[in-house]
Amino acid sequence: MDLRCAGLAWGARxxxxxxxxxxxxxxxxxxxxxxxxxxxxxxASVSVWWRGExxxxxxxxxxxxxxxxxxxxxxxxxxxxxxKGPAAATLLMALDDRGLGPETPxxxxxxxxxxxxASFGDLLSHQCGLAALDRRAxxxxxxxxxxxxxxxxxxxxxxxxxxxxxxxxxxxxxEPVRRLTGRTLGEAWWERIAAPLGLDFWIxxxxxxxxxxxxxxxxxxxxxxxxxxxxxxxxxxxTLTRRAFSSPRGLHxxxxxxDPKAWSAALPALGGVGTAxxxxxxxxxxxxxxxxxxxxxxxxxxxxxRVSGEDRVLIQPTAFxxxxxxxxxxxxxxxxxxxxxxxxxxxxxxxxxxxxAMGDPDSGVSFAYVMNQMExxxxxxxKSLGLVAALFA
Length: 393
Known about the structure:
Number of domains: 1
CATH class: Alpha Beta
Order of helices and strands: HHEEEHHHHHEHHHHHEHHEEEEEEH
Radius of gyration: 20 Å
CATH architecture: 3-Layer(aba) Sandwich
Strand content: 5-15%
Number of helices: 15
CATH superfamily: DD-peptidase/beta-lactamase superfamily
Low-confidence stretches: 1-19
Distance between the termini: 23 Å
Structural class: alpha+beta
Mean pLDDT: 93
């Protein structure tokens, strides 16, 4: 079926009142094409699901600037922090399997965790004040990072503040999974969630899949980007923002992310590799739109707001559930932005450079977008935000 016709058929099925118009997929495809014409897109995929049905999965462009390998919807690509949603689900599953959950104290599983009063919900919603480490540790050495975390004095306590943990989040979720399951988080992800759902998404990519990975290209800074509060802090030596994005050390360049070492390292904060279809289907499971291994408790934790307000690392308002983001609300209760569409209950997680994935329990829609020509930024940029806006127009 022609994709524009598919969009009209979908709109006719769901009708009015869902916040999605009959022409939404057609408009989304127009925006997708416009990204190639006007926004420097090189290769990209987008996937849309609704109530258990994949409505759209399209990929086009090139896997490299030499245009030696065409892009399609089966191409794999690193997605940086869009890995955090699947990683959080894996920890929540490991807890649930033991009869534990978000309110369980972290110290029950990890006795030397340095925030004695913290729950797993606090840990997963960036409230433990462990975004930056004083003791140097290598991202590639899990034991070394864990020792640095255990020695760290928290920058704040749960309930006092929150701030995004861009890199330490990986060890913070990996260590409890290892203690609970005896396996790495990447192994547990595959066995408990990815394989049962048939998801083409890995946290620790096997060698046989390496030929499918597209090459990433870094974004360039625009003048307006560099004037934002985040980039002023990020560019200033010694700030919490700069320290949070530089510890643990290692894997700081996009070039390093093109190395199979990064794909196979199974880094839960930023090392996931997969397709848009896999991420969109994961969020179908997360909103309960398809049968999956995710229990109601796990789904509730991924979606349920735990903290909202000024983020001490991202220097802007953010809102977090357990491992996923929501759009923050303003004083009137309206969304301050619509990264996740119009529903206040929609949630997901972006990745540095532009990858983006989300689920909306109100409409039953899930969405994911991945690409290889990155934009500058830790939050979604014009390319993905245009797609989300079209989807819910």
